[in-house]
């Protein structure tokens, strides 16, 4: 393991050195205020390395400066991964390792994002009152209220956090037609006219589906922050996931989504799919594990950990990951495994970390510098797993921590 750790740290350092200057991002035309693809996200790599003693704050400061410059959007279509909330969260995570910096900027951000959250909550409750289907942009982690809830939870804004949690509780109630409250009226790619999703779908994943709200509700409960109906909401989501849990010789798995046809006609569900953080079983398993930890449910915890173990031991699932990034690649599987292994009831998950690190090192090369799908995320996963450090809690952006 010592050689693997050393090689991983070297690989992460090489990537970080290649991303020292923000100039390359400007040349690519990537929006700086994107946590997924811009300077805000790449700053997380340098903040984490500086905090753990492997890098310097000059690089982190350079990327944060680019992220925080210009006209940051606080319009109603922004969220945790784009706009003012994305840049504010990058700044917040930097302060976890270097307290006292950016205090004034964060105070201004807090006011703006609190007002944004109020507007978004008003719109969401109005939509529910009308009986219209939900949309990813309303509730999900990336641009929805779950992501804004992550921001407020980490900033200790308890009133705003509880307001988001109350909305999520309401989202878990079935609609009058019996569909789950998080049923969206569009396809997994919202503008895609795919006839298979003519009546919408229910998404199960961490990035855009119900696993994200489940993880946030569980994390808040673990901190003692709860609202009326909180535990009932956890139970409703768990029951839904139990209904659609699929058997497999190596361990249970969950589909990416459920369509009307699958819901009503007992249509077959192909799978298992690739074990990605965003849509796949690993993200759902982590949300389930967090719920188990919040409730003290040992049986649920074992189920969630067995599900991830199945992803790791099934060659077909492992080999279906062909990209290195966090979102739907090897880095996401590595980071999810590390987090779940930390909390697991057995050592089995941890035993898979060395081969995962080795595989990611082999497939780490990418032309993209981005956090979510590119080199910055790969380097973060390698660095923090190999160094066994987590100074900035960067994976709170993925609802893993």
TrEMBL record:
List of residues binding Zn(2+): 278, 327-328
The record's section on Gene3D superfamilies has: 1.50.10.20
Q: Which GO terms describe its biological process?
A: peptide modification
List the InterPro entries hit by this protein, alphabetically.
LanC, LANC-like
Is Transferase one of the keywords UniProt gives this record? no
Work out whether the entry's keyword set contains Zinc. yes
Q: Which UniProt keywords apply?
A: Metal-binding, Zinc
GO molecular function annotations of the record: metal ion binding
A Pfam short name: LANC_like
Question: What name does UniProt use for this protein?
Answer: Lanthionine synthetase
């Amino acid at each position: 393991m010592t050689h693997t750790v050393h090689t991983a740290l070297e690989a992460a350092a090489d990537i970080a050195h290649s991303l020292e200057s923000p100039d390359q991002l400007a040349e690519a035309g990537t929006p700086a205020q994107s946590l997924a693809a811009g300077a805000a996200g790449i700053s997380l790599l340098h903040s984490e390395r500086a905090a753990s003693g492997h890098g310097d704050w000059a690089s982190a400061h350079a990327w944060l400066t680019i992220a925080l410059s210009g006209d940051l959007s606080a319009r109603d279509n922004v969220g945790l991964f784009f706009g003012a909330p994305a840049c504010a969260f990058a700044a917040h995570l930097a302060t976890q390792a270097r307290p006292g910096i950016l205090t004034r900027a964060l105070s201004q951000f807090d006011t703006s994002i609190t007002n944004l959250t109020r507007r978004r909550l008003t719109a969401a409750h109005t939509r529910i009152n009308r009986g219209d289907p939900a949309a990813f942009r309303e509730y999900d982690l990336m641009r929805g209220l779950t992501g804004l809830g992550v921001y407020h939870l980490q900033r200790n804004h308890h009133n705003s956090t509880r307001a988001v949690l109350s909305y999520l509780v309401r989202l878990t109630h079935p609609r009058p037609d019996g569909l789950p409250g998080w049923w969206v009226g569009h396809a997994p790619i919202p503008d895609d006219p795919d006839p298979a999703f003519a009546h919408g779908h229910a998404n199960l994943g961490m990035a855009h589906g119900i696993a994200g709200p489940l993880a946030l509700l569980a994390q808040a409960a673990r901190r003692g922050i709860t609202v009326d109906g909180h535990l009932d909401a956890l139970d409703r989501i768990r029951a839904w996931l139990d209904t659609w849990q699929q058997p497999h010789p190596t361990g249970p798995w969950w589909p990416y989504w459920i369509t009307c046809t699958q819901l009503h006609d007992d249509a077959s569900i192909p799978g298992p799919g690739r074990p990605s953080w965003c849509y796949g079983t690993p993200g759902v398993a982590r949300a389930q594990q967090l719920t188990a930890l919040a409730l003290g449910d040992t049986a649920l915890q074992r189920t969630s950990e067995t599900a991830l173990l199945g992803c790791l031991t099934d060659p077909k699932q492992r080999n279906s990951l062909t990209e290195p990034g966090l979102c739907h690649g090897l880095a996401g599987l590595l980071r999810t495994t590390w987090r779940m292994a930390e909390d697991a009831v057995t050592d089995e998950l941890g035993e898979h970390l060395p081969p995962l690190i080795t595989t990611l090192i082999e497939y780490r090369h990418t032309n993209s510098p981005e956090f979510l799908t590119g080199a910055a995320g790969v380097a973060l996963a390698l660095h923090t797993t190999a160094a066994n450090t987590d100074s900035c809690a960067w994976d709170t952006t993925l609802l893993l921590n």
